[in-house]
Design goal:
Pfam families: Hexapep_GlmU, NTP_transferase. It catalyses: alpha-D-glucose 1-phosphate + ATP + H(+) = ADP-alpha-D-glucose + diphosphate. Keywords: ATP-binding, Carbohydrate metabolism, Glycogen biosynthesis, Glycogen metabolism, Nucleotide-binding, Nucleotidyltransferase, Transferase. The record marks 66, 105 as: Could play a key role in the communication between the regulatory and the substrate sites. Residues 306-409 form the Glucose-1-phosphate adenylyltransferase/Bifunctional protein GlmU-like C-terminal hexapeptide domain. Helices cover 23% and strands 28% of the residues. The protein is an alpha/beta fold and 421 residues long. The protein folds into 2 domains: 8-283, Spore Coat Polysaccharide Biosynthesis Protein SpsA, Chain A, CATH 3.90.550.10; 309-420, UDP N-Acetylglucosamine Acyltransferase, domain 1. The strands form 6 sheets. Strands 1, 4, 5, 6, 8, 9, 10, 11 and 12 form a 9-stranded mixed β-sheet that branches. The protein is elongated.
Length: 421
């Protein structure tokens, strides 16, 4: 699929849904919404959807927020404040603010858009791209918008190709030979295969393209329907499939890869296990997600910090990091680090060891600590001599231990442990 000379992205607005807590991340979302959770050493999860939109040529964006939004709003203000209104480009933050004139906050994903119809009208766009702000992937939305226009569909739905055995966790699309959606099934026990490969299914990515005039009318009707849950996946998309024209867009057709032979990378880091694994995967020799690609960069807020520093070179007191990502502002003082990812301003001290550790910003690791297969939340002070990852029963007394043995450590957990000992 080739790009048109007059890019459709310039006539499109990206509406990012970023209000969901992400409760399966447990204590990581006690203080921040899921799209604001840190990822990859420097970025936040929402940076991927916003960067994809920017790199695709979209310069009009809005982020709808609701649950504990301060961290997310502050990040967008600091890291995404380079849009210029005089060039007809902007990123607006749209908190849930009872704009409907009653007691309602955002009642569902569709209602989040419906409550801001007047703002979208003011943008003067032809198309609206609805995005989830909580997934990790690289995608050229221009190609999806182009397919939407060429097919004349009422809605185009972004779809992942997944094995049928795994598709029961998703909303699944049944399609005909032209990828027109013939039915939408929410988490079916027996997902339908595709015409070209019965062993795979098409799962919804929560990405939709609409003509704004069509979507506007649909939202107004849905808002007046008391029986609706006001949700795209539950209400609007099934209605369009039944009464209109819905088209599937395969992620493999617009996924941005560093190598044509690389797999199409998409991750929902919605559990502690998935979050830990996706971060640790980046420490591999050639990770499937290329954060070093300057042709499709992931934009974010970058603090002004000095380079990382490694000090001490004695037996058992050597500042080293192997197969690891270490961000700016870190001081690795006599610590052995392996297969780990350290965010900004992490300080570690002598004789400590970190293995397969995901360490969020401003953590301090005291001397003689041994930590393996852990996620450490922002601002935690790891006490001297703490050992985690060697005795699951002992770890579970104080911390959150997942089914696969990943230990989540937060400040509140450290404080409770200190008070009990």
């Amino acid at each position: 699929m080739t790009r048109p000379s007059n890019r459709l992205a310039s006539r499109t607005m990206a509406f990012v849904l970023a209000g969901g807590r992400g409760s399966r991340l447990r204590e990581l979302t006690d203080r921040r919404v899921k799209p604001a959770v840190y990822f990859g050493g420097k970025t936040r999860i929402i940076d991927f959807a916003l960067s994809n939109a920017l790199n695709s040529g979209i310069r009009k964006m809005a982020v709808a927020t609701q649950y504990k939004a301060h961290s997310l709003i502050r990040h967008c203000q600091r890291g995404w404040n380079f849009f210029r209104a005089e060039r007809n480009e902007f990123l607006d933050i749209l908190p849930a603010s009872q704009r409907g004139g009653d007691e309602n906050w955002y009642r569902g994903t569709a209602d989040a858009v419906a409550q801001n119809i007047d703002i979208i009208d003011s943008y003067g766009v032809d198309y609206v791209l609805i995005l989830a702000g909580d997934h990790i992937y690289k995608m050229d939305y221009e190609l999806m918008i182009q397919q939407h226009v060429e097919t004349g569909a009422d809605v185009t739905v972004g779809c992942l190709t997944v094995p049928r055995a795994e598709a029961s966790a998703f909303g699944v699309m049944a399609v005909d030979g032209d990828d027109r959606i013939t039915s939408f099934l929410e988490k079916p026990a027996d997902p339908p295969g595709t015409p070209d490969d019965p062993e795979v299914a098409l799962a919804s990515m929560g990405i939709y393209v609409f003509d704004w005039t069509f979507l506007r009318d649909l939202l107004i009707r849905d808002a007046a329907d008391d029986s609706s849950s006001h949700d795209f996946g539950n209400d609007l998309i099934p209605e369009i499939v039944a009464k209109g024209t819905a088209q599937a867009h395969r992620f493999t057709d617009s996924c941005v890869k560093h190598d044509p032979a690389a797999p199409a990378y998409w991750r929902d880091v919605g559990t502690v296990d998935a979050f830990w694994k996706a971060n640790i995967d980046l420490t591999g020799f050639t990770p499937d997600l290329d954060l070093w690609d300057t042709d499709w960069p992931i934009w974010t807020y970058s603090e002004s910090v000095p380079p990382a520093k490694f000090i001490h070179n004695e037996a058992k007191r050597r500042g080293t990091a192997t197969s690891s990502l270490v961000s700016g502002g870190c001081i690795i003082s006599g610590t052995e680090i392996s297969e780990s990812l350290l965010f900004t301003q992490v300080h570690t001290n002598s004789y400590s060891q970190l293995h397969q550790a995901v360490v969020l910003p401003y953590v301090n690791v005291a001397r003689h600590a041994r930590l393996s297969k852990v996620v450490i939340d922002r601002g935690v002070h790891i006490p001297e001599g703490l050992v985690v990852g060697e005795d699951p029963e002992e770890d579970a007394k104080w911390f959150r231990v997942s089914d696969t043995g990943v230990t989540l450590i937060t400040k509140a957990m450290i404080d409770r442990r200190a008070a009990a000992l």
